[in-house]
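Minutes, project check-in
Item: structure for the 253-residue chain
Input as provided by the requester:
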Amino acid sequence: MCEDSVSVEEPLEFKVEHWVADSYQLYSLAVTMRTPGDDADLACGFLLSEGIISGFCQIDEVRSDGPNTITVRLAEDVYFDPESLLRHFYTTSSCGVCGKTSLAAVKVHVDKKLVSNFFISADVLKVLPTRLQQHQSEFQKTGGLHASALFNVDGQIQALREDVGRHNALDKLIGSLRNTKIYEPQDCGLLLSGRASFELMQKSAIAGFPLIASIGPPSSLAIDLAQEQDMTLIGFLRPNGFNVYHGSRVSGN
């Protein structure tokens, strides 16, 4: 008999404090199953990637109200109407869009196509799977976590977040950008440890990533969104090759 390391999964409740008339009111927005850690990043990234806020400047305060509750206070001038939300967000570690009432509700509006000068060579792109594994400390222990990572034109991993849910890993990564001026989404590529789903592409479009590379395959809707927003989408990324489903930000492929 021997001991084994397993991924931790616990619920996290997101709450929003928003200004109504002359005082703040508290609204319970969502519950997600996540790997504990980087909870403030997760909450802020979720608000942005779900289109609830348009920028991190609309957040006044983020606080923990217990081990499994995060409250985000919005600035007084931010419009937030709970009744306009088509569902009470309940997300799971396997699928962040379960329960949405229609595809129209899934498609958070993206104002305009991305503008970026980001380009990367095919040879550099092919080293990323190996570098991702080297940076996934928790995955090496448990084998049970997804990862989202930022990389530059030289193929260097600049930031990485892991979580039992792939949408949570991306939200954590997006939320981490609020505290840094070093990394700008339009100047980076996004690397996904699994497949490229529509939801992850939607979050990427809202955040402003010009290139998404996934170790796994994309879905048909993910490809449609990449074409609509003119985002470069790479799938089946391996040290010996990859597929380009849309875009022209890779040279020498």
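Outcome recorded: The chain has eight helices and 13 strands.
No further action items on this chain.
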